[in-house]
Design a protein that fits this description.
94 residues; mainly alpha; 2 domains; 0% strand
Length: 94
């Protein structure tokens, strides 16, 4: 391989390396900017939310429903006995 061709080949490789390092620098700058945005967002206090009071309200409603269902369950458990008593007390007309 003549010296001129080898020199051109080395120059081409050097140019490719320079472009690669330049692109790597751009990628690092972009990642740095993104990390700065993430850090800024993470250091801000969370937005105000009514989630806490809403969850408490839901818990209260669920507790009330549980009480209602317990009462209903007790009444339904007594129902067959009450039906039987009603049938014994009021015999059908003959």
């Amino acid at each position: 391989m003549p010296d001129e061709a080898r020199l051109t080949r080395i120059e081409d490789r050097q140019e490719a390396l320079i472009r690669g390092v330049s692109q790597l620098g751009e990628a690092l700058a972009l990642q740095t900017a993104m990390l700065e945005q993430i850090l800024t967002a993470a250091s801000e206090p969370p937005p105000k939310s009514d989630l806490g009071p809403t969850l408490k309200k839901i818990a209260t409603i669920l507790a009330e429903q549980q009480e209602t269902l317990s009462t209903l369950d007790e009444r339904l458990a007594e129902l067959p006995e009450k039906i039987a008593e009603a049938l014994v007390e009021d015999p059908p007309p003959s």
